[in-house]
Write a sequence for this structure.
């Protein structure tokens, strides 16, 4: 029987990319259908944790982009007024 991919359960991923790669490995292992029920449940739980981490990272990045865009648009508008 295949074991769950190497990952310590409930540990914080190093980065979005690391979490994404670990999640892909979990999906691949689960799709192979060679895991025990217990290993599948553990892998599923870790997958949910990783998915939540990735979603949070993406939301944070989107918020930063919104803030940057708002600031750039505001500055652009102000400089446009001064140039006239």
């Amino acid at each position: 029987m295949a074991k769950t991919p190497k990952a310590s359960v409930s540990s914080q991923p190093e980065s979005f990319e690391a979490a994404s790669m670990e999640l892909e490995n979990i999906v691949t292992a689960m799709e192979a259908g060679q895991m025990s029920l217990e290993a599948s449940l553990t892998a599923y739980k870790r997958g949910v944790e990783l998915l939540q981490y990735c979603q949070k990272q993406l939301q944070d990045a989107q918020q930063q982009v919104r803030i940057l865009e708002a600031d750039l648009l505001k500055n652009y508008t102000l400089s446009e007024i001064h140039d006239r």
